[in-house]
Amino acid sequence: MVAPHERADWPFFRCSPTTLFLKPENMLQAIQTLEKTEYHVCHIDCSSDASFLASVVRELKWEAQFGYCPDVLNLDALNDAVRSEPFDTADDTVVVLNDFQKLWDREERQGFHVLDIFTCASRDYLLYGKRLLTFVHVSNPRFETPQLGSLPAWWNAREWFHKDRGI
Hints:
Blueprint: H1 10-13, E1 18-21, H2 24-36, E2 40-45, H3 49-59, H4 62-66, H5 75-84, E3 92-98, H6 100-106, H7 108-126, E4 131-137, E5 154-155
Parallel strand pairs: 1-4, 1-5, 2-3, 3-4
Helix pairs in contact: 5-7, 6-7
């Protein structure tokens, strides 16, 4: 049996289940590492409001859960959706928020709540022996959030130091 600190997902859970990535290649490598351990990967495109909504509807199986497709994102409904799917089909999941910086720049308050919802859900699912990680692609090397689920989002190990992010 593998010790908890030797698991491939340990570095991502160590400080916060929400991890920031500046360089796409670092995020891709982290995703591939988790895929090898049978993590289910949900890709959510945050580049526009329409693509974000379409991705959430598809990845969280919105229509199957609620019986309709929303015209706009309701954060309360997103919170409900994250509580059941994708965990009906996988115990270990990583939600990848591609181009998240664009969502944050469009509506910082909504961006914060999206991250907070996934962070809080992760803690809840650990109680049931399931795992939820959130990988967040940003374009600002100085990106920071207020605390999420009472925890901050942390930079990944390869981009932890300012010099690794070109600062």
